[in-house]
Design a protein that fits this description.
By secondary structure, the protein is mainly α. The chain has 20 helices and 13 strands. The strands form six sheets. A three-stranded antiparallel sheet has the order 3-4-7. A two-stranded parallel sheet has the order 1-2. Strands 5-6 form a two-stranded antiparallel ribbon.
Length: 503
């Protein structure tokens, strides 16, 4: 790739960043880094009625947490700023006027009431009203009015919009990196509004102008923008500008595989659809985030990369650098990608094993009040023994509480299974063996207790099951001798004596 790659992620600050938006940002980031390019963040906030306080910062924080920060944007390497569209609105009128002067756009003065009448009339006849070549000369616009009439309306301050003049009887040949060649009959296109008399552009005009001025080389965006590709292509052509390459990413589907993933799906099935926790500033409604739910950003990024893309190999676990090296837009699928909440847990479990025990121990201590006075080095050793069975740090306490405090109850089913006639005598002998083991190491305990079991032809389960139950309160956990070594001789004996007296 010879030209300097520049891609942009251009969300609207209308609320928290959806997981689909994160996936779009990720694919832009991977593509940029693959080609030593630049990843740009632009905030498309022209629709001030939908602007939500805090949403812009949320977007930035989410990208940073995911480990895919932008290279250029608000307060960062501002070579083509400003990067908020609301601060660029003075630019767009000039380009709208250029399109009118070149005959590629026109003023339309139709009122909302008039357009509603036409829509209703068409619906009654079983038709769809489209404002384009077949009726624009019959409507109230600068194509049907004289130049004097148009100027009079403008001078009088009549409300207007500027519409793009879609061509008639042409076939557009478009190319999408993911979807290949696309043919569009211009006769089915409507004359989209580009600019309004309140001085604000629509998304279509602002998006094209900004991409051109920011020298965007590749537009990588969601499938929902595919219907706009014909208009955007024609706008580039009308301005005489070089068209960037386009790639439209597939939808992220519900876990059922039917329909686009929504917040409602997450609420219903119990998983987040936002990277970070979000509190709506108006309703105070709180929405869960992957970070606060205990997911590692590496797990989420690895998971999202596989929503619509595959490397062409059996490998599933990728570091960010490996994703960058492997990523190709040509390997992105056209069809929608089903969101699987169990799969992201699978990724998180893997990344749990990759984390350093000391870091996990610090995080565990911070969320568990019972550990406030416990040495973090001890916690770290415990974490190393139990994390293989954990998916989240929040799982640690249920898997390890017996390392920090004696069990208060004993699993009823396990008790009936482990404690039989003669168990009391066997555990009493175990206590003696523990007390007479000199160095109280894992090896010494194993030698003493296993040697006694073998030499007396006792079934291992007869001893090890009730011993584990006495120490843990249930039949789970790592090696019994590791547990005894960790909690110490005095505590081990104390727990066995308690279990014997109760059970």
């Amino acid at each position: 790739m010879t030209k300097n790659v520049r891609v942009r992620f251009a969300p609207s600050p209308t609320g928290p960043l959806h997981i689909g938006g994160v996936r779009t940002a990720l694919f832009n980031y991977l593509f940029a880094k693959k080609h030593n390019g630049t990843f740009i963040l632009r905030i498309e906030d022209t629709d001030q009625n939908r602007y939500v306080e805090g949403a812009e910062q949320y977007i930035i924080d989410a990208l940073n947490w995911c480990g895919i920060p932008f290279d250029e944007g608000i307060n960062k390497n501002e070579k083509f700023g400003p990067y908020r569209q609301s601060e660029r609105k003075h630019l767009y009128k000039k380009y709208a006027d250029e399109l009118i002067a070149s005959g590629n756009a026109y003023y339309a003065f139709d009122t909302a009431e008039t357009l509603d009448f036409h829509r209703t009339d068409h619906e009654a006849k079983g038709k769809t009203f489209i404002y384009n070549w077949h009726n624009r000369l019959k409507l109230n616009n600068s194509l049907s009015l004289s130049a004097e009439e148009v100027q009079a309306k403008l001078d009088a301050g009549d409300e207007y919009v500027i519409r793009f003049k879609s061509p008639q009887d042409e076939t557009l040949h478009l190319t999408d990196i993911i979807r290949g060649d696309i043919k569009i009959d211009t006769n089915i296109l409507d004359d989209k509004v580009l600019f309004k008399s309140d001085g604000m552009p629509t998304y279509h005009l602002a998006n094209i102008v900004d991409d051109h001025l920011m020298e965007i080389t590749h537009v990588i965006r969601g499938e929902e923008w595919l219907p706009s590709l014909a208009l955007h292509y024609q706008l580039y052509k009308a301005f005489g500008w070089e068209t960037p390459e386009f790639a439209h990413l597939p939808l992220i589907l519900k876990p059922t595989g039917k329909g686009k993933l929504s917040k409602r799906d997450g609420d219903k099935l119990g998983f987040p659809v936002f990277p970070l926790l979000w509190k709506d500033p108006i309703t105070n409604e709180v929405s869960r985030g992957y970070k606060e739910d205990g997911y590692f950003p590496e797990a989420m990024v690895n998971f999202l990369a596989f929503l619509g893309w595959n490397p062409g190999t059996e490998q599933e676990l990728f570091s960010l650098d490996e994703l960058i090296n492997a990523f190709e837009l040509e390997r992105v699928n056209k069809s929608g990608a089903r969101f699987d909440p169990d799969k992201i847990k699978w990724f998180n479990h893997h990344y749990m094993q990759e984390q350093h025990n000391d870091e996990l121990a610090e995080a565990f201590k911070n969320i568990q009040p019972e550990l406030a006075t416990i040495d973090v080095n001890y916690i770290s050793i415990v974490v190393g023994m139990i994390k293989e069975r954990a998916t989240f740090i929040s799982d640690f306490w249920a898997l390890s509480s017996y390392f920090f405090q004696a069990p208060e109850t004993y699993d009823e089913k396990a008790s009936k299974k482990a404690f039989k006639e003669g168990t009391k005598e066997l555990l009493t002998t175990v206590i003696t063996l523990i007390n007479t083991t000199e160095d109280f190491s894992v090896e010494s305990l194993q030698t003493a207790i296993k040697g006694w079991i073998t030499s007396n032809n006792i079934g291992f389960g007869q001893v090890m099951m009730p011993l584990r139950l006495a120490l843990v309160g249930e039949l789970q956990g790592p090696d019994v001798f590791d547990i005894m070594f960790m909690i110490g001789k005095v505590e081990s004996v104390k727990r066995i004596e308690k279990a014997v007296s109760i059970l």
